[in-house]
Amino acid sequence: MGEFDVQVAVVTGGARGIGAEIARRFARDGARVVCADVLDTSDIVAEITDGGGLAEGCKLDVTDAEAAAATIKSVFEAHQRLDILVNNAGITRDQLLVRMKPEDWDLVLGINLDGVFNVTQPVAKLMMRQKSGRIVNVASVVGLMGNAGQANYAASKAGLIGFTKSLARELGPRNVTVNAVAPGYIQTPMTDKLTDDQREALLKNIAIPRLGTPGDVADAVAFLAGPQASYITGVVLNISGGLYI
User: How would you class 7 by CB atoms within 10 Å of its CB: exposed for 0-12, middle for 13-18, buried for 19 or more?
Assistant: First the structure.
C-alpha cells in the first residue's frame, strides 16, 4: 500500500521541472495525479503511466478563472474526490523595478498569485464539503527575503505566503490543511547555464553548499500532503539549504 493510495492529486504547472517531479513523487506512492498545465503534459503522463502509475493531463491556463473552475469540477466528477492540490504554476520576468514593464508585473502577479486564487477557490469548496484535504502552495525563498531584480516575483510569492496563512485559518475547522514550501536555488536548466564563477559565488551564500534538487522540493510537498503532517497547517517550509535562515 502506498501512502497516497486511492487519493487524487492535482498539480498545476505539472508538465515539467518541479511540478513534474512532484507528480512523479505522488504517483510513486499510489496517488492518481492530474497534471494541469498550459504546456503539453503528455510526456510526464506517459512516463508515469508507463512506469505503472496513475496519471492524466489537462490543458489549463490558471489565469482563466472559468477554465480553472471547469477543470476542478471535471476532476471531481470523474473521480468523486479531490484530496490534494499543489499550486506550482508560476513564472518569472526579472528586471530592476525602474526598468520593469507594467505588463511584466501584471503577468507575474496574474499567474503566480491570481492563478492560485482561481484554482484554489473551487477546490476549497469541494474540500470543505468532503471535510478533508491538503493544499500545498509552492512559494519561494524570494518571497521571504526579497531579491534585487525580482520585485514582481517576490511580491507574488510573499502574497502567496499571506494567502496560505489566511486560508489555513479558514479551512482548518473542516480538516483541510494549507501549507507552503519556499524553495531556494534549485537545479534546473536555468541554473545549468551558470558559469563556474557564478555558481561558486552563489554557493558561498548557502549553508549547505549545493543547489537543491526538484526531488528535495517534491519530498517536502509529499510530507505536507501526507498523514505525518495532519496537525500542521499555515506553515512555510523553507527549502533553501540555509540561503535564508
Answer: buried
